[in-house]
Amino acid sequence: MLDEAMVKLAKEIHGDLVPESTCHGNVEGADPPLFIYSMPYLRGSSCIEVLAFQVEMDPDEEAKHGVFVKHLARYFARCWSSSRSVDRQTQEEQEEGIRKRLARLAEESPPSILPKSLLSKLIGSLPSLFSQDYPQVLTHGDFSVTNILLDENKFGITGIVDWSLAAVMPFGMDLDILSLTTGFMTQDGWHDYACKLLLQDTFWEEFWAVSGIKGEERRGRTQDLAETAGQIGAILRLAFRRNADGSPSEEVLMSESRMNQLRAWFGEQAARLT
């Protein structure tokens, strides 16, 4: 069920990219409850239908992907600039819930996929991510290639849908979308775009410009913590079974394709920590 307060906050921050929604009750007899919503038609197509499915791109295609990552950076900059206050008890509960899941994954996952040293590093970062001086921001919770709509010709973001898992969390918990949209998955595994590093540099340049964050030291710390949060978010989404509402449960999901996707994204760092 949509949290009306979260949807209202999303509209305040992101404007018309967030559709108005109307609840029409729930399906009788559904277990778990299934709610019915309607919303206006949004132009554009989902990322998964628009973004490239080949490693090499021509200059025009690469430029359009650059437009997309700039729009993505502006989305995150708006979140950064609209941080919220969270009571300490709520933060402690959120932090402990994540710590328990990462600790369970460290116990149950093969070291060849996600080494315990990497998971220990992520667990060790939680106090910094949930500290009072790190921004707690509106977080979509399911910021995926099916929930972001793009203009098919110019690749600008035209809409963001499905806010049912939205919550206020440490900045960057949705940042795995940058990995998810600078490559693609096939039956043969994960493939990075040849221009992945260029697109990621474009993202951060735009983010610094729009957010107003200055100074190499501050930028370095911000990027490090945000990317760490993004890794945690990716693990929660890919390495655990889902509850009925779509949120990650505490049960580890030993899916070979998902674990290999995480390994591909974290490969360089995981190799250093093995």
TrEMBL record:
Gene3D superfamilies: 3.90.1200.10. It comes from Fusarium floridanum. This is Aminoglycoside phosphotransferase domain-containing protein. PANTHER family: AMINOGLYCOSIDE PHOSPHOTRANSFERASE-RELATED-RELATED. It comes from the Eukaryota. Residues 64-179 form the Aminoglycoside phosphotransferase domain. SUPFAM superfamilies: Protein kinase-like (PK-like). Pfam families: APH. InterPro entries: AGP_Transferase (IPR051678), Aminoglycoside_PTrfase (IPR002575), Kinase-like_dom_sf (IPR011009). Coiled coil: none annotated.
